[in-house]
Specification:
ADP_ATP_car_bac_type; MFS_trans_sf; nucleotide-binding; single chain; mainly alpha
């Protein structure tokens, strides 16, 4: 990093650290509460009885509806608010919402279990999207390949820290206290965003300003984002990367959850989730420190984009052959250890040569709506498989679908990486 870049990189690093640390505290808690609740009670919809893993798939469908609303709100606000101001709005919302859940989480019923699960996913959807919209709007494409690995390292380190602390103290601290801790970290993240915003405002001239927005401000913000994506082969390639990853990730997570629920019971389920998430985030920290910076700074971006699908391909083949507790748990590590490190850095760098509208509207459409829509497709596939094949041993066959999807993902990653190189060379 260059000396003049530290004043921006440090608060962005720290902000992303806190956002992801908060998410990795919330994720195992909300997932553990949800799975344990329905592992004990089950979910009856008419004459259809769902086990815990199937009930969670329905919750992911509900996440798509919530994400669609989030796209509308995010895109509408981005018309008048940029960078740290968006962070202030969404951080304020989550502070209030988390405070409410801290008061009622002690004895949850169906409504609290579902709404807390949805809030946990919405947290990462909005806070991460806001963070990267700010970052992409403040960094040039050339600088992104150098700055993104150390800044994204903040998120990877935050994930390792948050999940490790939770794993070590999950039996000693009640859920309400954990949520109050998340309130404090969210407030601090907003303050750091304000500091980073002041740094960007002082920088003259602003780096590599993008072309003027071509999309009119009026109209439905979701449609505006969809139009921007539809008319750009480059953005369509990014959409394929985002969508295919989410389908693959959802299938892997369903296999992981089904495996844990099959082999373990009661409190052991939440403890396994916390342990696996800790292993995953430590592995992600290792990848970000020793792999991401080396690969992104020395090789074309396409190499970074293709790393994660290749790792997932290997893990899925292993689970297909030996579907036991730890090969099922390895699916989570192969997915998230690389997704939250090298894949995140490379994917976000793809947005840096785009226009402001594409950074805010198109990216919001991709990261929220397309992402959740892809999850709903994976949910439908998983529900279909588990409805037709009720034995646990059949879950392994989802890995065949994963292998096929990864092949298409690799093709999209290659195209996007080559196009990025052409666009940045033109600049």
């Amino acid at each position: 990093m260059r000396p003049g870049e530290w004043p921006l990189a440090i608060p962005m690093f720290a902000q992303f650290f806190l956002v992801i640390a908060t998410f990795w505290v919330l994720k195992p808690i909300k997932k553990g509460i949800f799975v344990a609740f329905y592992d004990e009670h089950g979910l009856d919809l008419g004459g259809w009885h769902l086990e815990a893993a199937q009930a969670e798939l329905l919750a992911k469908v509900a996440n798509m509806v919530v994400a669609a609303l989030a796209v509308v709100v995010f895109s509408a606000l981005s018309r008048t608010l940029r960078r740290e101001k968006l962070t202030f709005v969404f951080a304020g919302f989550f502070v209030v919402a988390l405070a409410v859940f801290a008061l009622v989480i002690g004895d949850p019923g169906h409504f609290v279990v579902w709404s807390f699960y949805l809030l946990g996913d919405l947290y990462t959807t909005l806070m991460v999207a806001t963070f990267f919209a700010f970052l992409n709007d403040s960094v040039s494409p050339d600088d992104a390949k150098r700055l993104y690995p150390p800044i994204v390292l903040g998120g990877v380190a935050g994930g390792a820290f948050g999940s490790s602390v939770l794993s070590a103290w999950i039996d000693s601290i009640d859920h309400a206290t954990w949520i109050w801790i998340c309130v404090g970290t969210t407030v601090t993240a907003a303050l750091l965003a304000g500091l980073a915003g002041r740094v960007v405002a002082r920088r003259e001239p602003e780096p590599a300003r993008e072309p003027e927005a071509r999309e009119p401000e009026a109209g439905n913000p979701v449609i505006a984002g969809a139009r921007l994506v539809a008319r750009s082969p480059y953005l369509l390639a990014i959409a394929a990367i985002v969508g295919l990853y989410e389908i693959v990730s959802t299938l892997l997570d369903f296999q992981f959850t089904s495996t844990v629920a099959h082999f373990l019971d009661d409190e052991a389920i939440g403890e396994q989730f916390a342990l696996v998430f800790t292993i995953t985030n430590v592995a992600a920290l290792f990848v970000q420190i020793f792999v991401t910076t080396f690969v992104m700074s020395r090789f074309p971006l396409v190499v970074s984009l293709m790393t994660t699908p290749l790792v997932i391909l290997g893990a899925s083949m292993g689970y297909l052959i030996v579907p036991i507790l730890w090969t099922g748990s390895l699916l989570n590590t192969a997915d998230n250890a690389f997704s939250y490190s090298i894949n995140q850095s490379a994917k976000e760098a793809l947005y840096t040569p785009t226009s402001r509208d594409e950074k805010y509207k198109a990216k919001a459409f991709l990261d929220m709506f397309v992402q959740r829509f892809a999850k709903s497709i994976a949910v439908g596939v998983s529900l279909l498989v588990t409805t037709v094949f009720t034995d646990f041993s059949t879950i392994r066959w989802l890995s065949i679908a994963v292998v096929a999807l990864v092949a298409v993902w690799l093709f999209a990653a290659r195209y996007a990486g080559m196009r990025f190189r052409e666009m940045t060379h033109d600049r």
